[in-house]
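Troubleshooting log. The previous structure file for this entry was overwritten by mistake, so regenerating from the original sequence record. Sequence copied from the archived sheet and checked twice against the printout by T.R.
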Amino acid sequence: MERRRAVIIAAALIALAAFVGLAVALNRSSPEGKKNDTTAPAPDTTSEPSTPAGTVDSVPAVVEPQELAAAHTVMREYLTTLGTYTYRTDAAAWTAKARELTDGSPAIVDQTTLPTGRAWAECERTKCSSTATADLKRDTVISNAPVDGAGRSVTTLASTTVRLHQEEETSQSTDFQITATYTKGEWKISGLQLAGVGDAGTTENS
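Regenerated output below.
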C-alpha cells in the first residue's frame, strides 16, 4: 500500500515538472523573449486629426457665382455696345442706352461715346457699320470690402474684337481691364482701361 502511494506521488511530481517545463519553453519561444499578451492593442493615436471647423473651405465666396455671372453679363453687353453701330445710328439714343450700363461716374461716362469729328464723317461717307464681340479671359480682382461706397466689385481682363465695314473690312482686337460695381441693386460698369495701364481693379468712383 505504501509503495503504491509512493508511485502515485512520484508520477504526479513528474507530470507537474513536465507542465512547468512546457510553460517555460513556450515563454522563451515568443518573439524577442516577450511574454504572449492577448490584450487588444491600444488605438493608434498618431492618425491625422479631422478637419477642424472654420477652415478655408467654409469661408463664403467673396462674390457668389450667380452675382459674378451677372457682372460678366453687363461687361459683355457694355463692350459689345461700344463697338457696335452704323452710320445711321442715332447718337443721342445710342449714348443714352450705353450709359445706362455705367454707374454714372464722370470718367466712364466720358468714355462711353460714338466716334466723333472726322472719324464719324468718314463713317457717314463710306456708309460704315461696326460690330464688336467680347471675350472675358479671367477675373483679376474681386472685392467685397466696401470702401467709400464702392461696394462689391469685379475687375476682369477682357478682349474685344471690332470689325469695321467701311470701304474695306478691317478688324482690330484690344485688351481691356473692365470693372463692374454693384450699385443700387445692379451691376454697373465703373471702370475701363487698356490692359496693363494703371492699377487693375481701380474704380473711378472709389
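Strands lie at 85-86, 129-143, 153-165, 169-183, 186-194. Archived copy saved in two places this time.
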